[in-house]
# Entry
Amino acid sequence: MGTEHPPVADQARVFRRLRARLFRNALRVALEAGRVRLFSMLLTSLIVAGFTFGVGYYLFDQLAEKKIPVKGSIVASLFDLLFFTLGGMLVFSTGIILYASLFTAPEARYLLSTPARADRIFATKFQGAVAFSSWAFVVLGVPVFLAYGLTAGVPWYFYPLLPVFLLGFVLLPGSVSAMLCLLLVRYMPRNRRQFLVLLSLGLLVLAGVWLVRVGMAARNSLMNNGRELDDLIGQFDLVRSGLAPSHWMTRGVMAAARGDAAGTVLPLALVWTNGLVGYVLAAWVAGRVYRPAYDRLAGGGRGKKVFRPSVLDRVMGALVFYLDRPTRVLVVKDFRTFRRDPTQWALLILFGVLMMIGATNFRQYYKADLAVMDKYAISLMNLGGTAVLLCAGLSRFIYPLISLEGRKFWILGLTPVSRDQILRGKFAFAATGSLLIAEFLILASDLLIGLPPEGLALHALAVAVVALGLSGLNVGLGAYLPNFKETDPSKIVVGFGGTVNMVVGLMFLVSVVGLMVVPFHAAQLARAAHGGAGVSPWVFAGIPVGLALGAAAVVLPLRAGARALNIMEF
Amino acid sequence: MIDIVDVTKRYGPKAAVQDLSLHVPTGELFAFLGPNGAGKTTTIKMLCGLLFPSAGTVQVGGFDLTAEGDKARALISYVPDQPFLYEKLTGREFLQFTADLYGMPPARSREKIAEVVDLFHLDDFVDDLTERYSHGMRQRTVFAAALVHEPRLLIADEPTVGLDPKSVRELKTLLRRLAADGVTVFLSTHTLDIAQELADRIGIIDHGRLIGCGTLADLRKQAAMDGSLEDLFLKITEEAAAEPPSPETAVPGLAR
# Structure
C-alpha cells in the first residue's frame, strides 16, 4: 500500500529522474520533429554570441588603444556595475518565473496534492527558474569575457574558471528572489494592490534619490572637466563594497585575468558558498511557508469586480479605422486585455516617467551652459533611450501575444478571419501603440531640450521607422517562434524565441539609429566644436537605407510569421 | 477515513465553506453534489491539503491535513476535473513517476503499472508522449496513475467528463469494486444518475453549507417526496435558496 512516506533521498532521486526524462524526451522530439528548428536555434545562438563577442572585443580593444589598463580599476568598476545590474535583473526575472511556477502552474497544483515535500517541489522549480532566467546571462556573458580575455592577454585558466564563476553567481540572486517571492506571497497584507503600489512607490523614490545623486555627481564632474570623478564613483560604493556579490565576481575575474590564481580562490569560494547557503536557506523557507503561501494566495479573493466597456476601446478601434471590422475587433480585444492588466502598462509608465525625468535633468544641464552636454548629444541619448524602451516594451508585451493565444487558438482559428488578418491586426495594434508612445516621448523630450526643427523631424522619422520595424519583428517572430505550451508571458520572453527577438530588435534599432541619426548628430557636434557654416547633405545619406531596413523589418518577419501560422495545426 | 469537523474556509471576506462537518467511513462511496460555486472544489482541495481550513479540522486516515499533510496525502489520490500530465513524458513514464513518488518498491510498481495499463486499456498509447493524447486518453491515464500506488482514499472531481460510454461503464464498475475492496471513494459530480447509481451516501452542499446528507432514502425523507435524485436535489437546493443568505456567505457588492 502507498501508506509509507518515501525517505528524503528517494524524493530527490525521483525528481532528478523526472527532470532527466523530461529533458531527454524534449531533446528527442526536437531532434526527430524539428531538426531545422533546432539547427536554426543553434545557429542564431552562435550568431548572437558572435555578435556579442565582436562588440565586446571592439570595446576592450578601444580601451587598450586608449592606454586604459584593462586589468585596472576602471575596468573593474565597469565589471562591478555590470555584475550588479545583471544580478538585479536576475532577482526580478527569477522571482517572476518562480511565482508562476510555484503558485499558478497546473504542475504545482498537481505536485501539492501528492506527498511530495514542499521543499523538494521548490527545489525542482527553483532549478528550472534559475536555468530559465539565467541562460541568456551565461550565453551572453561568456562571449563578453572571452573577448576581454583575448584583448587583455589572460592566462589559460581564466577561460575554464569563467563559467564556474558565472554559474555560481546566478544562485545568489535566484535564492534572494525565491525567498522574497515566498515571503511576499505568505505574509503580504490582504490588500495586495495597495501594498504593491506602496512598495513600488518606495522603490521608485529610492531609485529616484539615487539617480538624482548620480546626476548631481556627474554634473560636478563635468563642470570640472572630469577632474572630480570621486564623487561620481562614490555613488557606486554599494556596488563596489566588499559585501557585494558583484564585487566578489569582479575580484575573482580580475584576479584570474592578472594571473593571480590564489587570488581567485576566496572570491570563488564566496560566490559559491553564499549562493549555496542562499539556496539551502530558500529551500528551508519553502519547506515552512510554501504550502501556507499557496493556500493564502488561493484564499485571498476579493469582492466581485465589474468590468465595463471603456471609451479607450472605442479610441483604439478608431485609430485602426483602415482595417476591416473583424480585424478591428481583434485589435480592440488585444488592447482591452492589455489595459486590464496593470502589470503591463505600469512598467511602461515607469519607463516613460524615468525618461521624462532624465530629459528634464538634461535640460537643466543645458541651461547651465555645459559645453560637453551639448543638446545634440543629449537628444541622441534620448532617442536611444526611447528606441531601447520600445524594444523592451514590444518584446515584453507584443512578442508573446501569439504564444499566449496558446491552446485557445482554435477559437481564432474557427472565426471567419484569416490567419494573415490576425497577424495584420496584431501588427496594427503594436504599431499604433508604439508609434503614439514613442513619438510623444521623443517630441516632448526634444522640445524640452530645444532641438531645432530639422532635428525634430529627423528624430520623428527615425522613431517611426524603429517603432514600425520593431512591431513587425515582434509580431512576425512571435508567430514564427511561438511557444504555445507556456502560459506565463515572462517565461516566453526570456525563452529562446524571446531572446532571439530581443537581440535582433536591438541590432535593428542600433542599425537604424546609426544610419539615420548618428551622422547628423556627429556633424553637429563637430560643427559646435570646430565651427563651420552648416552640415553636409551627406549626413542624410543613411536615411533611405534606414527606411529600406525598416521596410524589410516589417515585411520579412511578417511574411515568415504568416507562413508559419498558416501551416500550424491546432 | 475522512473526518471534517466544523470547517470554514474563507476567500477574503466570502465564506466558500461554512461550518461543514462530515464523516466518511472506510470503504464508502460518497457522492458530493452541489450547484456551481457551492463549495465542492474548495472542500476537495482541503481534503487534498491544497488549501487549509480557516477554522475547524480536516483529517484523512487519522492524519490532520494541516499538521501531518504529507502523511495524509500518501493515502490519497486526487483526480481533478482538469487533470495534469507532463507533456514530455509517456504515459508509462508518468505512471512510473507516480509510483516512485509514493515510494513503491520497484517490483511492486512494475506489477501495478502492468495491471492498471491493462485495466484502463492503455496498451495502444501508453508509450507515446502524453502531449499527443486526446482528452479521454488523458483521463484514463490520470485514473491509472491515481490507482497505481493503491490509495486508501480516491477523490475524483467530475471523473466521467470526456470518457466514452464504454469507459464510463467500466469506471462505474471499477469505483464500486474499489469501495468493496475497502478504498474510500469521494466523488464530486454533476451527473446525478451516476451518483444515484453508485453512491452509498450522498451529500449536497450549497452556498458553502451542507444542506443534505444521507442515503437516497434519507434524502427522500428530508425532501418529503419520492422521486429521482435529480428531483430531490432540485427540491433541496431550491428550499435552501429560499432561506435568506447569511451575511457571511453574501458576495460583497451584489447585495441590494
User: Anything to note?
Assistant: Residues 7-301 of chain A form one domain. The radius of gyration of chain A is 25 Å. The interface with chain B takes residues 1-7, 10-11, 13-14, 17-18, 21-22, 25-26, 29, 106-107, 109-110, 112-117, 190, 291-292, 294-295, 298-304, 306, 485 of chain A (CB under 8 Å). Residues 351 and 479 of chain A are 27 Å apart (CA to CA).
